[in-house]
Amino acid sequence: MEKILIIGGGQAGFSCAAKLRASGFEGAISIACEEKFFPYQRPPLSKKYLTGQYELKRLLLRSEEYYKKNNIEVLLSAKVSKIKKEKKEVFFDFGEARSYTKLVLSTGSRAAKIFPKESNNCKNIYYLRNIKDADKLKRCLKPDKKIIVIGGGYLGLEIGSIASISGMNVTIVESSERILKRVAGPQTADFLRSIFKKNGVEIIENDVVDSLDVKGNIISNIILASGGKLQTDFVVVAVGGKPVIDLAERSGLDIDLGIKVNKKLQTSDVSIYAAGDCASFDFNGKRVRFESVGNAIDQGETVALNLMGKNVEYKIRPWFWSDQFDIKLQIAGLS
What we know:
Elements lengths: L2 E5 L3 H12 L5 E5 L15 H4 L4 H4 L4 H6 L2 E4 L4 E5 L4 E4 L4 E3 L2 E4 L3 E3 L4 H4 L5 E2 L4 H8 L7 E5 L3 H12 L3 E6 L11 H13 L3 E4 L3 E7 L2 E7 L4 E3 L2 E4 L3 E3 L2 H5 L4 E2 L1 E3 L11 E3 L4 E5 L2 E3 L4 H15 L11 E6 L2 E6 L3
Parallel strand pairs: 1-2, 1-7, 2-3, 7-20, 9-16, 10-11, 10-16, 11-12, 19-21
Antiparallel strand pairs: 4-5, 5-6, 8-17, 13-14, 14-15, 18-19, 21-22, 23-24
Helix pairs in contact: 1-10
């Protein structure tokens, strides 16, 4: 009997499992979630979950009953520490070994960090990638407090807008010459900059953080390369993500920007596939990764079809969205 093991409880892993069952797959399906939560969606973490409009249960992609009904095993707090490709086995941190016939890596991405040594023990620096991060950040959204957001991409602007709505004094620092440099054109950036300005948010562009002024375990000031010194109560770092490739790398799979996959999303091991933020694929002769819900769904479903022998090639359909103040930004295609 086929035994499909999916490592990662995000959108890509869930989409793969759901597509398998919807397509009539009758073998065993297991999803190993490193966190203690059933598979959940990430985008609302920086939007309605952070504002309190969404409760935890609204983040879940499906209820616990769905997995029981569809005979999908979900392993919670189950971090995989090792893959033995030759024996088709994985080993969990809690000691158990599991065999598989096909393995899917949907390990996602983690927040990129700046000044990790200097800020490791600081209590007032935040990142946002999971529910635990969002819960911590939510507690610091207090009126009249000062918050500095490092990074002027989608995530940084979303957090900045919510902090402003919460009554905080917000400064966003972007290292490029303008916000949204990688993802949108200058007209879009100009429009959104004007919205932030109307709401009292200061945006500093073309400047980088040179150092942190740390007293005890608290960051009190941000020192910019231009010489500026910004006092703050809280710091949020939103400078992008790094693919979670540690497990794949230790297992000897090919790595190139992320976990390297072919057009069918197979890794260098024909029994192992990768999907979502962690996977890198060829696009117009260049190896790329896409961190988006649409990409995670499409790749997860493509893997599912290939696990069933459908011989399907992944076709990219870039689409992104972002909520900032009362503006919804939607982008189709790549700029």
